[in-house]
Amino acid sequence: MEINVPNFSNEDENENGNENTNQPQPEATVTPPKPNPRGVIQFLTIIGQVEGHILLPPTNKATKYEHIIPQLVACAESTEVDGLLVLLNTMGGDVEAGLALAELIAHLGKPSVSLVLGGGHSIGVPLAVSATYSFIAPSATMTVHPVRMNGTLVGAPQTYDYFNKTQERVQDFITANSSIPRERLNSLMMDTQTLAQDVGTILIGEDAVREGIINEVGGLHTAMEKLYELIGKDITPTPPSPEV
């Protein structure tokens, strides 16, 4: 007794006239995204507290400067990055760590724009002004106050001199990278009438622009458009090669 087993092998064409599914199919190709013709932007966020040489408690939201420095160096070195956008929402932190990051941004060698969102307090002020152009959101605030120190202090004139020199470093950087006069900056830092339990001044949105610390009030779109503008000015067209 013969049993007819249907032939399921694929031939060049099946009964329905369809092509053989075992025939080589063209490979799927993924088209890479087109680069932005206006320039490639790298984003950098500085949030929470700027952590310095001492580790902060795990409950504190912090930005570790040893993580940010390699990113800034890579941004400066990369031929694919045209500009840097720094987003700030920081309560301040370590003075030396903050100044180190601010110096790197100020001397990046590429156009940069900063945007203060929420707050850019204390050492966040030098970080904000370190960019080529700075923005602040209308509801964002910046607290300008003298240098502080936690821990045991030696009650000696040398301690005061150290505080004074550290504060001068911060003031020198702010005045060199913004348009606020040094006398006015020192007056805002030493104000005793604004804060109930501290010395200093709180600037909200337009106030920071009016004092000459920040360039303009704006948001993310405005900041990105300004950075694209700076990138366009920074990129010089390659001159045509002479014909042979």
Characterise this structure.
- By secondary structure, the chain is of the alpha/beta class.
- The protein has a single domain (41-233), classed as 2-enoyl-CoA Hydratase, Chain A, domain 1 (Alpha-Beta Complex).
- It is built from seven helices and eight strands; from the N terminus they run ββαβαβαββααβαβα.
- The strands form two sheets. A six-stranded parallel β-sheet has the order 2-1-3-4-5-8, sandwiched between helices. Strands 6-7 form a two-stranded antiparallel ribbon.
- Helix 3 (124-129) links the parallel strand 4 and strand 5.
- Helix 1 runs parallel beside helix 2 (95-106).
- The chain is elongated and about 85 Å long.
- It starts with 40 loop residues before the first strand and ends in a 10-residue tail after the last helix.
- Residues 237-242 have low confidence and may be disordered.
**Number of continuous helical runs:** 7
N-to-C CA distance: 87 Å
Count of discrete domains: 1
Q: Order of SSEs, N→C? A: EEHEHEHEEHHEHEH
How does the overall form come out from the CA principal axes? elongated
CATH topology: 2-enoyl-CoA Hydratase, Chain A, domain 1
Give me the CATH architecture, please. Answer: Alpha-Beta Complex
Helix content: 25-40%
CATH superfamily caption: 2-enoyl-CoA Hydratase, Chain A, domain 1
Beta fraction of the residues? 15-25%
Tell how many strands the DSSP assignment holds: 8
Main beta sheet = 6 strands, parallel
Largest sheet strand order: 2-1-3-4-5-8
Characterize the quaternary organization of these chains: single chain
In the CATH scheme, the class would be: Alpha Beta
Flag low-confidence runs. 237-242
Rg value = 28 Å
Q: What class do helices, strands and sheet pairing give?
A: alpha/beta
